[in-house]
Amino acid sequence: MGKETSLPLADDAEITATAPVVEGSAPKKISVQQLVDWVVAHPDSGLPFRYHLGADGAIETLDEVYLP
Fold first, then answer.
1. Residue 18: what pLDDT?
2. CA angle, 23 as apex, 18 and 28 as ends, to 5°?
3. From residue 50, how far is each of 17, 31, 65 by CA, in Å?
């Protein structure tokens, strides 16, 4: 397991997720609150995400990495 990292997430971040966060295998845009709710309900999921930081150091895009 990789090193745990804490980074701020912008309120208007663009987040893309696939199953099991959303139904189906096609990536879908979700809100920050939808992601938070899912992570709280599944704290040990270990899903990998790719992110991009904005100029302020907050995550502005967050995409789930689909692993078949």
1. 87
2. 45
3. 11, 16, 6
Angle CA 50–2–4, to nearest 5: 80
Nearest-10 Cα torsion for 59, 61, 62, 63? -160
Task: Give the pTM.
Answer: 0.72
DSSP codes joined into one string, 4-59: P----EEEEEEEEE-TTTSSSSS-EEE-HHHHHHHHHHSTT----EEEEE-TTSSE
Instruction: Give yes or no for residue 52 having a pLDDT over 60.
Output: yes
